[in-house]
Structure formats: structure tokens, C-alpha cells
Amino acid sequence: MNLPLSDELIAEANHRALPALEEDYHALGRKLARSGVEIDTIKARIAGFSVAVPSWGAGRGGTRFAKFPISGEPTNIHEKLEDCAVINQLSRATPRVSTHFPWDKVSDYAALREEAASLGLSFDAINSNTFQDQLGQAHSYSTGSLSSTDAATRAQAVEHNIECIEIGRQLGSTDLTVWVGDGTNFPGQQDLGRSLDRYLDSAAEVYAALPGDWRMLLEHKMFEPAFYSSVISDWGSSILAAQQLGDKAKCLVDLGHHAPNVNIEQIVARLHRFGKLGGFHFNDSKYGDDDLDSGSINPHQLFLVFNELVEAELNPRGDFRPSYMIDQSHNVTDPIESMLSSAEAIASCFAKAILVDRHSLHAAQDANDTMMAFQALRRAYNVDVAPILAMARFEAGGAIDVLAVYRESQWRARKAQERKAVGLGAGIV
Ligand code: RM4
Ligand code: MN
Ligand code: MN
After folding, report:
1. Which of 27, 194, 400, 428 is 20 to 30 A from 59, comparing alpha carbons?
2. Which of 128, 129, 160, 221 to mutate to test the pocket of ligand 1 (most atoms within 8 A of CB)?
């Protein structure tokens, strides 16, 4: 294994930070023990928790208006993997990378898989891209992709998804995430019923090409790039499509893809109820698909989502193994710092959800004791779980203070000397 940062740097920083961490960890351990919780058990659950990072999140994103690159930013999948390895080396919570094609295209995928393995990484879900035209592409996606009115365009979109499966087999992935930007900008532009029929027919062709142990994750999104209607706009369309396609089709919930104030945790519970919860794209949002850092706007919502996931674990329906991925656009921060901070925010909501006293919660629910049911959640949410996360990271070889060590490593400044500058231009969808 050839990890990017020096082990000594991490060890020295940890040596300085350990006494305070031990003090905090033991103090929290005593506090939790008073309510019958064994802190080491929680730490063990956290040690087993991980979230995938998106290859496309390693570079600076942007908006429709601008992109502000930073020097030392990665410009190809090899450099992105290196940055993802830094995130995992420090956090020990992000060992998998989710790829996007054709953005991450290379000529030798077996070699890419080895390259990732040498950095301590493996590959998560493959994301197909039929929301942009590529240079030299035969048919434009301006009329849609899987749901296009044009048969040749639909066939091209199906072909691309099948190629993604083939690439994924070589990379060791077992999930294909399909998000299409298909939809309309004007009432009347397309028939709302027939466009869904076309989508379902095309999606069935992709589904038929899935290997036995693969899943197809359908990602819904309310709007953008289509501003009047989107073909898979909401969890209702998503679950209906997944039910029609078959068992291997599941729904993926991107936290930013709903109307403002929608009760996402309830959507999570519903999808689970019907065995269709496939995974997440974690991010946060204030207005729309803002792709802001996880937990930066509404950490309580993230906690409530994890609360449903812990409930779901206790009541599994079918094969309950949701995949956790980050999907963010880092427009004003160093992407490595954003993903370090986001992985921590996500794991901390998971830790708080495990801390919920389920016995009290269920008893209060059954007795219609609203206040005590709410307090069972609130007590867990109020616990500062940072020492548990830091101790789990430390024991796994990561950094106690991830951001401090990252800054000390001067990684970005060093890469600025080696990597070619990024062009300007628009950002990510
Ligand atoms: C979309 C959606 C997809 C992501 C693209 C880049 O809004 O979130 O998951 O692949 O953006
Ligand atoms: Mn997404
Ligand atoms: Mn999105």
C-alpha cells in the first residue's frame, strides 16, 4: 500500500492530541454508562461505518454562472483517486469511490482497479451520464435520453448504461446509479404519460443487462435541468419504476432532490417499508439541489434520516443494505476539507441515531407520550459524539483532528507544483 500522506505526520499530530481525546472519551464513556450505554460498543459500530466519496466531488464544482478553480485541483481520475486516498487515510471512513462515466473514462480499468487498491481504495456505484452531450456523440440528449422521443437517442442512452455496467464489472462495482435529466421546460412539450412509458421501456433494457448480484439504483430529482416536469421527479415515480423493473431495482435518495421542507425521513421509511431503499447521495440544501456539505444546513434532518435507518436495521425488509455515498459540489472550499468534514457529519448523525434509547422511544410511542418520545430523540441528538468518532479513527490509523493534519500536510500546495491548472468554464449539474 502506498498511502499519500506520511504516517509520521499523522502519528506525531495524534501523539499531541491523544491525551485530551482520552480525557474526553472517558468522560463521555462515564456519562453514557449512567444510562446503560457502553461507549466501546458505539465506537465499534462507528468503526464499521463507511461512506463512499464521489470522484466528481474531488474537484471544485461550480454553478451555472461560474467555477473558481484552485491550484492543485485534480483534473483526471488518477489525481482524483489520490485525493480520495488522502480523505480515507485521514478519516478511515471513506474507503470507496463512486465513479461517473464518461468523466472517469480510462483505457485500462483493470489497471485503474489496481491503482485504487494500492491507495487503499475500492470502487462503489457507477454513475452513468446521459444528461450531457459528449464530443462526437451521434445523437443529442436535448430531447431526453432514456425517455427521448427519438428511438436512436434512447438506444444510445441504453447502450451507455450497459457500457457502464461493463466498466463497473472490471472495477468491482455492483451498483449502477441512474439519474436522468430528462423532462420538459414547457407545458405541452411532451406527453407526461408517454415519456414515462419510454423511460420504463429503456430502463428495462438496462435492467436486463444487470449481472445477477448487481442493483440498479434509480435516483429521482424534482427539477433541474428540466424546469417544468422531470420524468423521474419524485420518490413516487421512482418506487413505481423500481417496482415495475424488478427486485434488483431500488430507489436512491439524494437529499437535495426534493421540494423544500419535504419530510425526507418519512420518504426513507416508506421506501424501506416496501423493500426499495437502495441508497443515498448525502449532501445538504437550503433552496434546491444546492449540493452543499452534509449537515452544514440541517444536521437535525440528517440525524432523523439515520434514526429511520437504525429503525430499518431492526426491521429489515428484503435485503436491506443501503449504499451510502456523498454527492456534493464544493464551490468555495477545498474539496478534500469538505469531504473530511462531511464524512464526520454523516458518521456523527449515525452515532447519535445509535444512541437513541429505542426501548424508551417505542414505549413512549406506544403510550402516546409525545413529549417523552420526542425527548428520547432529543437526548441522543444532544450528545457530542466527536470523541467516539475521533477514537475510532485513531484506532484505525487515521487522524484525531483530520482538518488540522490535512492543513499541516500542505497537500494542496504540493500538488499545485505538480498538477496542471484547471480550465475555467461551467460547473456541475
Ligand atoms: C445530479 C444528481 C446525480 C449526479 C449529477 C452530477 O443532480 O445528483 O447524482 O450524478 O448531479
Ligand atoms: Mn445525486
Ligand atoms: Mn443532484
Report:
1. 400
2. 221
Take atom 11 of ligand 1 and give the residue whose Cα is closest. 429
Alpha-carbon dihedral angle through residues 365, 367, 373, 376, given to the nearest 10 degrees: -100
Per-residue pLDDT of the chain (429 residues; tens, 9 = 90+): 899 999 999 999 999 999 999 999 999 999 999 999 999 999 999 999 999 999 999 999 988 888 899 999 999 999 999 999 999 999 999 999 999 999 999 999 999 999 999 999 999 999 999 999 999 999 999 999 999 999 999 999 999 999 999 999 999 999 999 999 999 999 999 999 999 999 999 999 999 999 999 999 999 999 999 999 999 999 999 999 999 999 999 999 999 999 999 999 999 999 999 999 999 999 999 999 999 999 999 999 999 999 999 999 999 988 899 999 999 999 999 999 999 999 999 999 999 999 999 999 999 999 999 999 999 999 999 999 999 999 999 999 999 999 999 999 999 999 999 999 887 665 554
How many Å from the N-terminal Cα to the C-terminal Cα in the chain?
Answer: 35
Give the closest residue (by CA) to ligand 1 atom 7: 429
The Cα 392–Cα 40 span in angstroms is 9
Q: Taking CB atoms and a 6 Å cutoff, what residues make up the pocket around ligand 1?
A: 100, 127, 179, 219, 221, 254, 281, 289, 327, 428-429
Do 345 and 303 touch, CB atoms closer than 8 A? no
